[in-house]
């Protein structure tokens, strides 16, 4: 069990890195989808106003 | 099968593969006689290195396809691949250092394998920096495609470095054999499959982010243009 600390450190570093990146990309995607739906709504409203006028 | 189901199923499959890999690493594969328990870093270290090489290969192919076809989707695939590759090569270097400290008694040595891998890291980090510094889309895509193609030259050098030069880095995979126990090979294969499935999940997410960004820019231009 000598060197266990290095094994634990290596696995913690790997999982921390992988999960942080996964969370970063998933968060980025959620933010962009929200922004996209807001823009689509804005565009729809604009088109409706143009149709009326 | 509908897309919603596939989107939900993929993370579950990746999770299950990682659970299997961890079980195989800690309960199935034997502990190596000389290095002891710390050798178990090997399974994730090698799998991540292979996954990084795959990423850079995809970027290399995407670069060629972008330059020949001028279709921006190849730039999206290439840049997504490089970003994921940089994450994996960084973690490969980090896990390697944590493995080297107890075995070689040093965190880092300027060994050919380590040095060429560090050069590879610098090449693709500079690719990501280049992406943020060129404004015009087509020009950025062309520069990055060239860098992805040129940078890929280092991948076979990293792979062959331990075979060509004198090195303290072990060579496990040879042209005619794999120098480890069959149970260790099986564990390595399961871990590699888990990392490849994770790569696919990340690639899907990252390309989807890039395509959503493009759609947003298109709609913003449309709204601003109409105002």
Characterise this structure.
In chain A, 92% of the residues lie in helices and 0% in strands. The termini of chain A are far apart. Chain A is mainly alpha-helical and 53 residues long. Chain B has 227 residues and is mainly alpha-helical. Chain B has one domain (41-168, 183-225). Chain B has 7 helices and no strands. Chain B has helices spanning 3-28, 41-69, 72-104, 112-133, 137-151, 154-164, 182-226. In chain B, helix 2 (41-69) crosses helix 5 (137-151), helix 3 (72-104) packs antiparallel against helix 4 and helix 3 packs antiparallel against helix 7. The longest helix of chain B is centred in the C-terminal third of the chain and has 45 residues, at 182-226. The chains are: A mainly alpha (53), B mainly alpha (227).
What kind of oligomer do you see?
A: heterodimer
Which geometry of chain A do the CA atoms define? rod-shaped
Sequence of secondary-structure elements of chain A: H
Mean pLDDT of chain B: 90
Number of helices of chain B: 7
Q: How many β-strands of chain A, per DSSP?
A: 0
Strand content of chain A: under 5%
- Extract low-pLDDT stretches of chain A: none
- The residue-averaged pLDDT of chain A reads 87
How far apart are the first and last residues' alpha carbons of chain A, in Å? 78 Å
What gyration radius of chain B follows from the Cα positions, in whole Å? 20 Å
Which two chains have the most extensive interface, and how many residues on each? A-B, 28 and 35 residues
How many runs of DSSP E, i.e. beta strands of chain B? 0
Classification by helices and strands of chain A: mainly alpha
Overall geometry of chain B? globular
Into which percent range does the helicity of residues of chain A fall? over 70%
Q: How many helical elements of chain A? A: 1
Question: What is the count of distinct domains of chain B?
Answer: 1
Helix fraction bin of chain B? over 70%
């Amino acid at each position: 069990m000598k060197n266990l600390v290095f094994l634990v450190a290596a696995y913690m570093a790997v999982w921390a890195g992988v999960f942080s990146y996964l969370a970063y990309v998933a968060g980025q995607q959620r933010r962009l989808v929200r922004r996209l739906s807001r823009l689509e709504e804005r565009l729809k409203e604009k088109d409706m106003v143009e149709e009326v006028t | 099968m509908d897309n919603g189901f596939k989107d939900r199923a993929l993370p579950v499959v990746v999770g299950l593969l990682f659970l299997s890999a961890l079980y195989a690493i800690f309960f199935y594969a034997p502990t190596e006689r000389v290095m002891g328990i710390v050798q178990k870093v090997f399974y994730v270290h090698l799998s991540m290195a292979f996954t990084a090489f795959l990423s850079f290969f995809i970027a290399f192919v995407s670069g060629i396809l972008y330059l020949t076809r001028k279709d921006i989707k190849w730039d999206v695939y290439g840049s997504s691949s490089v970003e994921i590759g940089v994450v994996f090569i960084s973690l490969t270097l980090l896990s390697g250092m944590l493995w080297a400290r107890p075995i070689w008694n040093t965190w880092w040595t300027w060994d050919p394998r380590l040095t060429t891998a560090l050069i590879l890291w610098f090449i693709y980090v500079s690719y990501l920096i280049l992406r943020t510094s060129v404004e015009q889309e087509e020009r950025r895509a062309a520069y990055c495609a060239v860098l992805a193609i040129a940078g890929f030259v280092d991948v076979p050098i990293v792979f062959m470095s331990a075979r060509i030069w004198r090195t303290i880095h072990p060579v496990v995979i040879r042209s005619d054999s794999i120098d480890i126990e069959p149970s260790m090979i099986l564990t390595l294969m399961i871990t590699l499959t888990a990392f490849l499935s994770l790569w696919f999940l990340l690639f899907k997410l990252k390309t989807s982010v890039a395509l959503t960004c493009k759609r947003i820019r298109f709609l913003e231009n449309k709204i601003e243009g109409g105002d």
